[in-house]
Structure formats: C-alpha cells, structure tokens
TrEMBL record, chain A:
Membrane-topology descriptor: Peripheral membrane protein
Organism name: Scheffersomyces spartinae
Pfam families reported in the protein's UniProt record: COX5A
Similarity comment: family membership: Belongs to the cytochrome c oxidase subunit 5A family.
InterPro entries assigned to the protein according to its UniProt record, in alphabetical order: Cyt_c_oxidase_su5A/6, Cyt_c_oxidase_su5A/6_sf
Gene Ontology annotations for the cellular component aspect, listed alphabetically: mitochondrial inner membrane; respiratory chain complex IV
Keyword Membrane: yes
Signal peptide start and end residues: none
PANTHER family in the cross-refs: CYTOCHROME C OXIDASE POLYPEPTIDE, CYTOCHROME C OXIDASE SUBUNIT 5A, MITOCHONDRIAL
Protein name per UniProt: Cytochrome c oxidase subunit 6, mitochondrial
Subcellular location: Mitochondrion inner membrane
Phylogenetic placement of the source organism: Eukaryota, Fungi, Dikarya, Ascomycota, Saccharomycotina
Function: Component of the cytochrome c oxidase, the last enzyme in the mitochondrial electron transport chain which drives oxidative phosphorylation. The respiratory chain contains 3 multisubunit complexes succinate dehydrogenase (complex II, CII), ubiquinol-cytochrome c oxidoreductase (cytochrome b-c1 complex, complex III, CIII) and cytochrome c oxidase (complex IV, CIV), that cooperate to transfer electrons derived from NADH and succinate to molecular oxygen, creating an electrochemical gradient over the inner membrane that drives transmembrane transport and the ATP synthase.
Gene name linked to the record: COX6
UniProtKB/TrEMBL annotation, chain B:
Name of this chain's protein: Genetic interactor of prohibitin 7, mitochondrial
Length: 136, 253
C-alpha cells in the first residue's frame, strides 16, 4: 500500500502543475474595477477605521489605505490614529506617522501633515519615530 | 494584541535593495538562526513537558531588564514573552501621555523590531524606510494636490513583500532549516525501511510482540472453564439418566 502511494505521488510530481487559469490570474485589470474619487476614498476609509473592531483590521486598513497613488487625507489618518487608541496599540500609531513620512514626496508635505495632525497627536500622546529613536 | 503587520496585497515591485552582506554578517546571521532554532526547540519542549518542580521556567520574571534592553524580549520563552506583553498592554490600555520612553521603545521593538518573522529588518530603529511598506520608496504620487473628484488608483504594479530580497529566504520553500530537514529525512528513512520490510521480509520479520500475561487473570479464566465443563458434564449425565429410564419401569413397580 505504501509503495503504491509513493508511486502515485511520484506520478503526480512528474506532471507539470500548471493551472489552466494561471494565465488569467497573471493579469490584473484594474480598469475593470470601479475607480473611486478622492472624496469617496476618504469617506470609505474614515468609515472603515471608525468601525474597525481590532488591531488586525486597523493594520489591514492601514496597509490598504497606503497602497494607492495618493496620500490619504488627514481626516483618514486621524481616524486611523483614533482606531489605534481604541484598540490600545501605541506602536501602530507611531508606525502610521512613519508610513506617512515615506508616502509623501518631500519633507515639506510631511511637515504640513504633522501640522494638520498636531492636535490629535497631542491629544493622544503619540510620539514620532524620530523622537523614539533620534539619529546619533 | 501586538501582532505584526499583516501583508495582504500581492505585488511584484520592490521597496528598496539592501546592501550585500559581508561574510561576518552572514556568520552572525547563522549564529542567530542557531539560537532561534534552540529557542524554538525549548519552546516546543516546554509545551509538552510537565514543568512542575522546574522552578524558574514557569515563575514570572523581573521584566525591568527587558524594558531597558528590548532586544532581550526575543530570547524569552513564550511564557515570559506573554508576561511582558501583558504588562506592556496594561500600560497601553491607560493614558499614553504617561508611558515611559522604555515602554514605547519596547512596544515598537516587539511590533516592528528585527526578531521573529522580521529577523533581518536591521533598519527598524533607523530613519530609513522600513522594508515592509505597502508602496515603493521613494513614493510616486499621482498628484500632490488632489481634488475631491480626482480618481484614486491602486499602486501598479502592487508591492509584493514576499518577493523583497530581505524576505526571499523566508518564503523560499527549497531552503529549509536544519531541524525541518532532519525530520523530513527521518520520515523518508522510516518510510524506506517500512517499504523494504513490506516487500522483502513480510510478516516473518514483524517486530516481536511483547505479551504481558496476568497470572491471576489466567487462573480466573481456567477456573471459569473448569466450572463450565463440570456444569456441562452434570447436564449431560442428567440427560442420559433421564433418557435411560423406560416407560415400563413405572409399570413394573
């Protein structure tokens, strides 16, 4: 029985395992999806962050929000920070600012975002990574 | 609560290319990998072993040194990691203004430091883009001044963190660690021996079965058998006796 099982598995390996649908999966037609406007995008993520039940969902939403060709609006970042506070995860709040720092194209934009989010950052007591690990 | 960031998007692009590693760094990596393997074995062992009486392994530890030196968190047992996480979480549940710098740094190290699945993320405490951002760096934006009606597009091609050079080894199924390899080869050897025995030796070569005999049980069974035989004999004699009587015996009397 063992021998027949081994033979069967060897036979299975001999056949190249190329899915019939591999070719279809390789192409992602984003144009087929409904493209959101920046306003819709902002409203969607604000709502999603408000409803995020746990840290997993907050981090998933952060990954998704930063995976577009625009920087999320300050309102979205604010809701993300409030969600971090709600799930009591301080490091993710720090990481949100870190992600913002490298998402914007220059230091001036980062400074503008920090200015815009100054109040919420002060209210919640969130440090930046620069403050946690100052460069020697 | 302090779970690592989970990557959901699939992609082909790369974030940034790390510097080539020197032989010293590679040797250091190997040493760290060996330490981690030992720690894993200890953790697995601690799950199965009855640790009663071992003392220190199950006793809560003083977490202050861990707060002072967060990198020590990675070397703790699962139990003690849980203890430190609980202590930290209790702090995070309260006002963040009251957090100490040590608590903040420990949380950041646990979440995003170079241990566990982020083992090679050596720039975690530097002012450099992390290796697991869901967008390429330097960032390329559609516009710096989006209007409400500006269309938002997903990054194309999407970033595939599993293909990042720093994580290629982790996701490479051909490069297994020594412990896993050992168990795979052990399984193959056992399977080969079993196959050989099945084909060329058969039942004659089966392992000697150890039979444990209970003399009291044997005695009880023998007693029962003896009683059964006696009962059968008695029953047969009675039957024979009843058959041996003829109808005219009564008449003769």
């Amino acid at each position: 029985m063992l021998a027949s099982t081994l033979r069967a598995s060897l036979r299975a390996r001999a056949i190249p395992s190329v899915s019939r649908f591999a070719g279809f999966r390789a192409v992602r037609n984003y144009s087929d999806h409904h493209l959101e406007t920046f306003e819709e995008f902002t409203a969607r993520f604000e709502k999603d962050f408000q409803e995020a039940p746990d840290l997993f969902e907050v981090q998933r939403l952060l990954n998704n929000a930063f995976a577009y060709d625009l920087v999320p609006a300050p309102a979205v970042i604010e809701q993300a920070l409030l969600a971090c506070r709600r799930v009591n995860d301080y490091p993710t709040a720090v990481r949100t600012f870190e992600a913002l720092k490298y998402k914007v194209e220059n230091k001036e934009q980062y400074a503008a975002y920090l200015e815009e989010l100054k109040d919420i950052r002060k209210e919640l007591g969130i440090d930046l990574k620069e403050e946690l690990y100052p460069e020697a | 609560m302090l779970t690592r960031r989970v990557i959901h998007r699939s992609f082909r692009g790369l974030v940034s290319v790390p510097k080539p590693r020197t032989p010293e760094e590679m040797a250091q990596d190997k040493e760290e990998a060996a330490k981690l393997a030992m720690q894993s074995i200890k953790d697995i062992g601690s799950m199965f072993s009855n640790s009663e009486g071992k003392g220190d392994d199950t006793e809560p530890i003083d977490s202050r040194p861990i707060f002072k030196e967060p990198s020590r968190f990675a070397t703790l047992s699962l139990l003690h990691q849980g203890q430190v996480l609980n202590e930290l979480q209790q702090m995070y549940d309260k006002d963040w203004h009251k957090l100490t710098l040590e608590a903040k740094q420990l949380g950041y190290y646990i979440g995003f430091g170079n241990w566990g699945s982020r083992d090679k993320f050596d720039n975690w405490n530097k002012q450099e883009p992390p290796y697991d951002l869901p967008y390429p760096t330097p960032s390329k934006l559609q516009t710096n001044d989006p209007k409400p009606q500006t269309l938002v597009h997903p990054i194309d091609p999407p970033v595939n963190l599993a293909l990042h050079p720093i994580r290629v080894d982790q996701f490479n199924p051909k490069r297994l660690d020594g412990v896993t390899k050992f168990f795979i080869y052990l399984t193959l050897v056992v399977a080969a021996i079993a196959l050989y025995r099945d084909k060329f030796i058969g039942e004659a070569g089966r392992p000697l079965e150890i039979v444990i005999v209970d003399p009291y049980e044997e005695e009880r069974k023998a007693e029962q058998a003896r009683e059964r035989i006696e009962e059968d004999l008695k029953a047969r004699l009675e039957l024979e006796k009843s058959k041996s009587r003829k109808w005219y015996y009564l008449w003769i009397k």
